[in-house]
Inverse folding.
């Protein structure tokens, strides 16, 4: 569907506004979204999405796709029209060599070109594999440039496998820290966790496709929120107010279902996704965006049934919801949740990777579901719900939940945590509530 | 009744204290407390044993003190169990009445109870109580005693309380190592309710919240029977821990502040004050803000009570609480608890005395003894049942006894 576009050229459907810092879209103007794939992994992700779109899927229609890399060869191979080679003066187009410093310097060197490419965009999604050179280093720079333009910046970061070694892990975490300073929300996808869900039998290609699909569905959910006519309209200002400026860690999950109990099933799937720890992270969220997509037959009762369990879990969060109608979703319902967990809470003891989870399930209910995008491989067998995750009782406590805390559960440190609706009650209430005590 | 049966002992192995209460059943069937013993509990956390040897010593000490006070030798005890692993739910059993006249007999009642108890609980769990609520005869609701009625279908609603077998066993093992024989086992909240609530309270609807050191147990009565129960593995220790972390104090100092200076009824406009205390020689006096102390306590207890309220709301029980909230256990001594609980629940709150017993006021008025005293009543009902024809209350006791016997059989 997309006609080839020159980079930074205004798309035919939109009138480009001259850039103003902290610009806000004017009435009637469409929101411009841009998906930027940085580095090898990021490039692969965007090219999967681009390929799906060329194949006739309605996925992300209207979202502009840009690929960015230090490696000319890798970039050339991508079926994406907008490509930016960065840091040629530094690396001669040979890649960053796994050094994030080089990646950052390369992006800095070509800041103007990146700026030009991002001009006039309202939402910038950055997708990158963290741990290597270009993605890890350049993402923060791109996020900063996008932010300076006044765009809402969301980052999807794929974290390396444990087997890739400590150095890459450290580099990935360092990169995450940097990108967090500029982005509005960072959604990290720990590869280890993702692949655990898929099971041993998954081929490498499937696995990477799945990762791409997850990022694709996240981008798509937001795109749907702002671009479809809604039953309950969620405008860009809401999204901005919800996610904007929080520098938060993101949580993202998606579920869809059809049939009699489609609303209930979709939420169940959303919460059951092992990657979101049974809603554990939702309980800690401070802002939650719920997007519902249904057919023209979507009822208000469906909406209520979908949102209610989420708001119940995310009881301290500011919840913003929208419901959109899409003809192709007749008889089906898809629900996506994007939540922001305050980054400040991190010091109370979690690895970011444990809190940030991302996931998507597509579930056959009698009829095999039509995938939303071609990049949505069914992974039903692997994610078949473990019944206890769906219950209100939190999932089995995991050892790593306890680690790393510099503040703590005090005398209960060594015991089994007292989990209740995803909260560890052994941690002092005033800490969980974020009450600041005067000493 | 045999003479030796007249002496009953209730033993609660709590997280902070082990309480032993010796009671005597008088000839007219009243309960009289003749001695109490208490020892600081060691090796118990959140209501469960973490160090068997330490726990055994604590139990021995408490029992020895009770023996001294009561002037009797203790061989048999009734033990309370608790812990975050304890779960409960309501279940309904159904049987067809098979005899020719369609008259419901004791056996039918037994059968329907067994049927109601035959529920799927997790493998490692064991049923501690199956408390009968009421019966249905051919779908007719609200029957408390179906014996003698006619009908074809008998149904019974029961409240089943179950817990992890191995974790329940830990407490039992410790008691046996003292060595003491165990007569009955009861869940802490149920025992407390027996000591705290009168029959009228049970009819009107009441919630008993037993705030212990490591757990907060609660049980809901309405229409005369147990409707719901639960355990939160959060107690006074958590309050102390919160204070210790929040004000950076050692745990014993935090405990002292909680007991002596703290209040859970905090509000934004509460006048602040400074509490100062001496430290080890050579260190300057330490000062803490009373406002901060109370705020930490307030947040924790308000949260705990709110979690209970939320659970009751979920079970749609709040509208059936006519008599109010009864708070007992060591936590009942927290300053300002009555006011705070009133605000949270919007119901009358009673900080408890143990009713239905005679004896030294020190024991009766101590909320810490509720569970142990309740165990005496529990044991009394169980025993009486063997000697007297069943009345509803006694049948209740009998049912417990059977369950307990079954539980014990499982443990042995």
């Amino acid at each position: 569907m997309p006609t080839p576009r020159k980079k930074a050229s205004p798309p035919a459907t939109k009138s480009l506004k001259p850039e103003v810092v902290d610009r806000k879209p004017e009435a009637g103007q469409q929101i411009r979204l841009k998906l930027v794939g940085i580095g090898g992994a990021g490039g692969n992700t965007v090219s999967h999405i681009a390929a799906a779109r060329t194949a006739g899927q309605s996925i992300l229609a209207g979202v502009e796709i840009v690929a960015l890399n230090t490696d000319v060869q890798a970039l050339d191979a991508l079926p994406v029209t907008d490509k930016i080679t960065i840091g040629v003066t530094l690396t001669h187009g040979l890649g960053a060599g796994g050094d994030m410093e080089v990646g950052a310097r390369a992006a800095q060197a070509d800041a103007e070109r990146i700026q030009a490419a991002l001009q006039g965009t309202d939402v910038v999604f950055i997708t990158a594999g963290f741990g290597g050179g270009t993605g890890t280093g350049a993402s923060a720079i791109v996020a900063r440039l996008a932010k300076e333009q006044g765009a809402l910046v969301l980052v999807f970061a794929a974290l390396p496998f444990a087997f890739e070694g400590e150095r890459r892990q450290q580099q990935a975490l360092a990169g995450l820290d940097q990108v967090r300073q500029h982005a509005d929300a960072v959604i990290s996808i720990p590869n280890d966790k993702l692949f655990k869900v898929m099971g041993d039998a998954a081929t490498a290609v499937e696995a990477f496709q799945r990762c791409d699909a997850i990022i694709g569905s996240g981008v798509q959910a937001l795109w749907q929120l702002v671009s479809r006519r809604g039953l309950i309209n969620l405008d860009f200002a809401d999204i901005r107010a919800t996610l904007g400026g929080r520098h938060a860690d993101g949580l993202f999950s998606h579920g869809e279902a059809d049939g009699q109990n489609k609303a209930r099933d979709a939420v169940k799937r959303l919460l059951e996704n092992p990657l979101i720890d049974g809603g554990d992270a939702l309980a800690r969220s401070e802002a939650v965006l719920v997007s519902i997509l249904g057919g023209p037959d979507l009822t208000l009762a469906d909406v209520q049934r979908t949102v209610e369990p989420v708001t119940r879990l995310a009881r301290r969060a500011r919840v913003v919801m929208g419901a959109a109608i899409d003809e192709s979703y007749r008889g089906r319902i898809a629900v996506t949740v994007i939540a922001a967990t305050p980054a400040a809470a991190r010091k109370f003891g979690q690895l970011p990777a444990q809190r940030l989870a991302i996931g998507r399930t597509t579930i056959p209910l009698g009829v095999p579901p039509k995938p939303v995008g071609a990049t949505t491989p069914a992974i039903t067998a692997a994610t078949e719900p473990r019944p206890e995750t769906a219950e209100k009782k939190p999932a089995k406590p995991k050892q790593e939940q306890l680690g790393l805390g510099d503040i703590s559960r005090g005398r209960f440190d060594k015991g089994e945590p007292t989990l209740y609706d995803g909260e560890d009650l052994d941690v002092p209430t005033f800490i969980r509530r974020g009450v600041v005590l005067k000493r | 009744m045999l003479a030796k049966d007249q002496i009953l002992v209730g033993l609660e192995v709590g997280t902070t204290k082990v309480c032993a209460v010796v009671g005597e059943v008088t000839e007219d069937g009243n309960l009289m407390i003749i001695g109490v013993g208490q020892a600081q509990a060691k090796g118990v956390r959140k209501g469960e044993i973490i160090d068997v040897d330490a726990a055994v010593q604590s139990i021995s000490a408490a029992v020895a003190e009770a023996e001294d006070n009561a002037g009797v030798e203790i061989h048999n005890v009734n033990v309370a169990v608790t812990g975050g692993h304890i779960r409960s739910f309501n279940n309904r059993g159904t049987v067809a009445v098979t005899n020719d006249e369609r008259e419901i007999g004791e056996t039918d009642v037994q059968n329907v109870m067994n049927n109601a108890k035959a529920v799927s609980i997790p493998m490692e769990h064991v049923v501690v109580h199956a408390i009968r609520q009421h019966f249905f005869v051919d779908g007719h609701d609200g029957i408390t005693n179906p014996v003698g009625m006619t009908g074809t279908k008998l149904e019974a609603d029961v409240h089943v309380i179950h817990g992890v077998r191995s974790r329940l066993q830990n407490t039992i093992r410790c008691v046996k190592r003292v060595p003491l024989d165990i007569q009955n086992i009861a869940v802490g909240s149920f025992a407390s309710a027996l000591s705290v609530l009168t029959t009228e309270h049970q009819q009107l609807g009441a919630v008993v919240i037993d705030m212990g050191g490591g757990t907060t147990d609660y049980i809901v009565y309405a229409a005369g029977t147990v409707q719901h129960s639960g355990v939160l593995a959060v107690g006074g220790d958590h309050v102390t821990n919160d204070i210790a972390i929040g004000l950076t104090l050692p745990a014993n100092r935090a405990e002292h502040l909680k007991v002596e200076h703290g209040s859970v009824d905090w509000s934004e406009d509460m006048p602040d004050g400074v509490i100062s205390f001496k430290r080890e020689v050579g260190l300057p006096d330490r000062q803490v803000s009373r406002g901060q102390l109370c705020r930490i306590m307030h947040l924790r207890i308000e949260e705990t009570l709110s979690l209970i309220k939320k659970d009751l709301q979920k079970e749609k029980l709040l509208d059936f609480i006519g008599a109010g909230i009864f708070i007992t256990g060591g936590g009942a001594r927290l300053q300002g608890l009555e006011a705070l609980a009133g605000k949270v629940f919007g119901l009358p709150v009673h900080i408890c005395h143990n009713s239905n017993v005679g004896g030294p006021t020190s024991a009766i008025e101590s909320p810490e003894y509720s569970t142990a005293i309740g165990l005496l009543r529990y044991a009394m009902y169980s025993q009486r049942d063997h000697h007297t024809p069943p009345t509803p209350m006694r049948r209740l006791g009998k049912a417990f006894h059977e369950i307990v016997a079954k539980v014990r059989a499982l443990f042995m």
User: Anything to note?
Assistant: Chain B has a mean pLDDT of 86. The longest strand of chain B covers residues 125-137. Residues 67 and 74 of chain B are 6 Å apart (CA to CA).
